[in-house]
Amino acid sequence: MKIIGHHSSIARLPADEPLANGPTVAGTRDFVTLTLHTDQPGLTGIGVTYFGGPLTAALRHTVDLLAAMIVGDDALRIEAIGDKLRIAAGASAGPGGLFTLALSAIDIALWDIKGKALGVSVSTLAGGHRTSVPTYASGALMRHFTLEQGVRAAQHLAEQGWRQMKTQLALPGPTTPALEEARIRLIREAIGPDIDLMCDINQRWDVRQAISIGQRVEQYGLFWLEDVVAHDDYPGLASVARALHTPIAAGEYVYGPVPFRHMLEARSVDIVMIDVLRAGGISGWLKIAGMAQAFNLPVVSHLLPEIHVHLVSAIPNGLTVEYMPWSGALFREVPRMHEGMLAVPQRVGLGLEFDEDALARYRD
User: Fold this and answer.
1) Minimal CB count within 10 Å: which of 53, 112, 130, 153?
2) Cα separation of 232 and 235, whole Å?
3) 218: left (phi over 0), alpha (psi -120 to 50) or beta
4) pLDDT at residue number 316
5) pTM for the whole thing?
6) Rounded distance, CA 200 to CA 182, Å?
7) Domain ranges for the chain
8) Cα 103 from Cα 81, distance rounded (Å)
9) Interval 79-115: pLDDT, tens
């Protein structure tokens, strides 16, 4: 089965917050979409990638350059294609950044093609461990929203049936440990003791702050603290993990499998968070998940729940899927939370179709 062509576009989606009717913030969320065409009539694969910055046009151009390099290749030989691109283009570009983000879009599309060609879902193709997985609400309790908005949003999510949700600390502007603790306390009081509450720091603390504030908020039973210090400070992260009873999650900021090896060998984390785009696609994601399993650690996802539902469900150490709805408008239909769970789509491949009307509306 040969690849015969490709098409990409940029979709600039509104920066809204649909889970709890939160405020829309300035700017857009810019995704690059990819369709790979094969010589089998009607058989295509779709991929997506995201930069989250001003270089989206450069990312799309990189996707196009890489996709052009694999025209004529066998679409089912995913590892061969990935290796070809790493040697031909990635050797000089390095293991991270635009190259890996572009490679991920291609790899995702190839897995979609392979699932369709074999008549199974990507989840089944990748292991098929479960047909549904837990999921948590993300993006509704952001640090730049007011505390009042955060408390209302937390209550709304609980009423909607969410059993897990994530907030943020490292508050903007003048802040103190007491203010940080108060935010967690009020959100915990709003949702009660039985809902899992995660908290993301986004690398904004140093080791001293992470331990000090982390100890103050342990009484509120956080499910995890995430990215508490700089993503590549593996010894510092390990110091925090040793000092706190709260589990430490990290991994979304690193590219490819190698940093995860360093992170795991340093015993820096209790929960491994993998971003399918920074991992190098589904192929890289599964390799990292296997490495985590060898260290007896669970895996969670970052962004793109429409794709991650397949991956977290496929493996035995999948813990929960981040339901960040930023990418949902790209697709005609997406998995929806029901009683705290996401069901794996039963259609072949990723079970996704681009919403062409939406893409035309938001096209750059």
Assistant:
1) 53
2) 9
3) alpha
4) 98
5) 0.97
6) 16
7) 3-119+356-362, 124-343
8) 10
9) 999 999 999 998 888 888 999 999 999 999 999 999 9
